[in-house]
């Protein structure tokens, strides 16, 4: 990865895609794709982050995401969509989820977060992706909805197992101030460090 991240914006509304590109062009190398097929043609190993609309005619963002993961592309993906999240997101292979409308600052922040996470090992990446999904569902769903969801219960179990596996690494990261706030934002918890 070079110093300037490469970002692919996948958005079926050209004016919105171009607006996102204008917001990001000073900090990133930006490419745009206006549908799913174009996105799959444009994505390659040089892309660091994909901002992916979920609802598009033709190939949906979900299909594009599945295809990207099948290709084992090593890039971070943020869904940027008007689709309110539901429990189906638990099994999806994205790293973050933004509900439109979004600001330029939100896009820059999510790209920065994803690039930071890309430096973590695979266990921590999975942990942060799952923690982000849990935080999103905690915010969007009632306690009763969460309690009645098998997917949510499995998400909590997977998080618990990963938390045990990465505890030593997390303690090391938490000793560094920059990671302390990231952890609190994503996990929604504060931990004591020695």
UniProtKB/TrEMBL annotation:
Q: Which GO terms describe its cellular component?
A: cytosol; protein-DNA complex
**By its UniProt entry, which Pfam families does this protein fall under?**
HalX, Response_reg
- Taking the record's annotation, the residue ranges forming a coiled coil are 145-172
Q: Which residues form the Response regulatory domain?
A: 6-115
**Which superkingdom does the taxonomy of this entry point to?**
Archaea
InterPro entries reported in the protein's UniProt record: CheY-like_superfamily, HalX_domain, Sig_transdc_resp-reg_receiver, WalR-like
Tell me the GO BP annotations in alphabetical order. Answer: regulation of DNA-templated transcription
Q: Which positions bear 4-aspartylphosphate?
A: 53
Stretches that traverse the bilayer: none
GO MF, any single term: transcription cis-regulatory region binding
- Which CDD domains does the entry link to? REC_OmpR (cd17574)
Keyword check for Hydrolase:
no
Keywords associated with the record: Coiled coil, DNA-binding, Phosphoprotein, Transcription, Transcription regulation, Two-component regulatory system
Recorded hits in PANTHER family, A to Z, give: REGULATOR OF RPOS, TWO-COMPONENT RESPONSE REGULATOR ORR33
What name does this protein carry?
Answer: HalX domain-containing protein
Species of the source: Natrinema thermotolerans
């Amino acid at each position: 990865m070079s110093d300037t991240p490469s970002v692919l914006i996948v958005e079926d509304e050209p004016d919105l895609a171009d607006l996102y590109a204008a917001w990001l062009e000073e900090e990133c190398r930006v490419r745009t794709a206006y549908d799913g097929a174009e996105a799959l043609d444009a994505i390659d190993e040089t892309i660091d982050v994909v901002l992916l609309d979920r609802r598009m005619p033709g190939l949906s963002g979900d299909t594009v995401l599945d295809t990207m993961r099948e290709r084992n592309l090593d890039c971070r993906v943020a869904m940027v969509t008007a689709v309110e999240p539901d429990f189906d997101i638990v099994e999806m292979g994205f790293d973050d989820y933004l509900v439109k409308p979004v600001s330029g600052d939100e896009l820059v922040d999510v790209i920065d977060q994803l690039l930071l996470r890309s430096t973590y090992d695979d266990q921590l990446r999975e942990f942060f992706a799952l923690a982000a999904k849990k935080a999103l569902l905690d915010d969007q769903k009632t306690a009763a909805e969460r309690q009645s969801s098998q997917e949510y219960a499995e998400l909590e179990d997977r998080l618990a197992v990963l938390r045990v596996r990465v505890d030593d690494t997390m303690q090391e990261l938490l000793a560094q101030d920059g990671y302390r706030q990231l952890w609190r934002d994503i996990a929604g918890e504060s931990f004591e460090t020695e």
